[in-house]
């Protein structure tokens, strides 16, 4: 006789199917409660979405010149060879690579330099500095007043026991010792100004987010100009120092040549017609000094031209792919995303309450009642005996 074999996996699948059906039945039976929670979540989402101030983002895209320096180095080497000057072919790479641009823009010195930038609101009726705009015109949601209240209370209490130094809003910020207000404004600027470098296309994206679209566009344009100026100054710093030194040598050589030329001319004028050998020797000496001074002057003049060409060659050029334009629509907050997120969280919370929360609360209440009834039954004979 063949015995029937029982598959234990079939029992597990049946139990899981029963459990899922039971959970689905619980949710369906409590659908009204879930819908109510979803409506409350939608209301909360609408309140949150309209309480967050609008932010406008302006983006500028720059395309830097190619980093390959083969052609420029060849042209400069040819110019140096014509002047009889040897140049080393091993040029070092640029220390300020595009990957460092985000760190430069978010640095404290760069943010402080933006404090005095003049901006105008979209209405055109108010012009102020970026420092004043961040301090006075940036609004926050209503709940930030509540969340920051404990910190304000603690700060107010501590100020009673400490002597705060007097601050002047028009004073130049001291980078070595910033005030808490200046440090907060610099941190706010670093969060609102960002730079992203695309490694594939080598384009540089500069984004500025502000609550006023005109301020966002004006500040983005200023940040782009300041960043280009910073990189140009850094890359050409050594070349400009060499140019200044070459200019100094050329000026000294020119003065020496003019002086030697004048001495030779004066001597020949005074001793014209004299055929003494000593006079001829002195004349030859002065003429040789003038020739040497002229050769030195000619050499320094060529070096000066090479230094000027080098500054021009290594000066980076940026092409503006996307200029700064005043944004017409806010970039955030995304009201629809906030609404959907709040509704989703409300539905998840209601489902968790229906499936697990009720049972946990009921079991907790039952345990408390059982414990209380046990204590009452234990004390009942004593009270009856009295």
Structural write-up:
- By secondary structure, this protein is α+β, with helices and mostly antiparallel strands.
- It has helices at residues 8-29, 31-51, 70-82, 101-106, 108-113, 130-136, 143-147, 149-161, 180-192, 213-235, 237-270, 277-314, 335-385, and strands at 56-64, 118-120, 127-129, 193-197, 204-210, 318-322.
- The chain has a 4-stranded antiparallel sheet with strand order 4-5-1-6. The chain has a two-stranded antiparallel sheet with strand order 2-3.
- The longest helix has 51 residues, at 335-385.
- Residues 67-73 and 86-93 have low confidence and may be disordered.
**How far apart, in Å, are the first and last alpha carbons?**
74 Å
Strand arrangement, largest sheet?
Answer: 4-5-1-6
- The secondary-structure element order is HHEHHHEEHHHHEEHHHEH
Strand content: 5-15%
Low-confidence stretches: 67-73, 86-93
Count of β-strands: 6
Mean pLDDT, rounded to whole units? 82
Class by helix and strand content?
Answer: alpha+beta
Largest sheet: 4 strands, antiparallel
Helix content: 55-70%
Approximate shape: elongated
Report the total helices.
13
Please outline what is shown here.
This protein is α+β, with helices and mostly antiparallel strands and 386 residues long. Helices cover 65% and strands 8% of the residues.
Defining traits:
alpha+beta, single chain, 386 residues, elongated, 13 helices, two-stranded antiparallel ribbon, four-stranded antiparallel β-sheet
């Amino acid at each position: 006789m063949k015995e029937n074999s029982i598959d234990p996996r079939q029992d597990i699948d049946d139990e899981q199917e029963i459990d899922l059906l039971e959970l689905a039945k619980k949710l369906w039976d409590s659908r009204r409660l879930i819908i109510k929670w979803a409506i409350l979540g939608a209301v909360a989402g609408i309140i949150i979405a309209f309480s967050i101030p609008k932010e406008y983002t302006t983006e500028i895209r720059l395309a830097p010149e190619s980093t390959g320096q083969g052609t420029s180095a060849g042209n400069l080497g040819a110019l140096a060879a014509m002047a009889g000057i040897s140049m080393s072919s091993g040029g070092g790479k640029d220390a300020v690579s595009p990957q460092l641009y985000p760190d430069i823009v978010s640095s404290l010195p760069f943010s402080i330099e933006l404090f005095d930038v003049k901006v105008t609101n979209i209405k055109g009726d108010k012009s102020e500095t970026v420092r004043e705009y961040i301090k006075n015109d940036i609004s926050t949601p209503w709940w930030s007043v509540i969340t920051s209240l404990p910190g304000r209370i603690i700060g107010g209490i501590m100020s009673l026991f400490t002597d705060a130094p007097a601050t002047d809003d028009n004073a130049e910020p001291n980078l070595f010792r910033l005030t808490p207000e200046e440090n907060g404004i610099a941190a706010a600027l670093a969060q609102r100004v960002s730079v992203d470098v695309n490694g594939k296309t080598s384009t540089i994206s500069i984004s500025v987010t502000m609550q006023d679209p005109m301020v966002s566009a004006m500040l983005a344009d200023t940040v782009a100009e300041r960043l280009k100026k910073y990189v140009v100054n850094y890359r050409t710093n050594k070349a400009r120092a060499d140019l200044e030194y070459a200019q100094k040598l050329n000026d000294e050589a020119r003065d020496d040549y003019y002086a030697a030329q004048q001495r030779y001319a004066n001597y020949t004028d005074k001793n014209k017609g004299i055929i003494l050998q000593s006079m001829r020797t002195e004349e030859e000496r002065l003429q040789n000094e003038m020739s040497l001074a002229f050769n030195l002057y000619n050499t320094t003049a060529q070096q000066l031209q090479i230094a000027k060409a080098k500054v021009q060659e290594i000066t980076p050029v940026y092409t503006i792919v996307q200029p700064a334009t005043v944004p017409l629509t806010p970039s955030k907050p995304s009201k629809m995303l906030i609404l959907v997120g709040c509704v989703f969280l409300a539905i998840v919370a209601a489902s968790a309450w229906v499936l697990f929360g009720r049972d946990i609360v009921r079991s907790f209440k039952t345990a408390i009642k059982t414990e209380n009834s046990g204590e009452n039954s234990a004390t009942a004979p004593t009270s009856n005996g009295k």
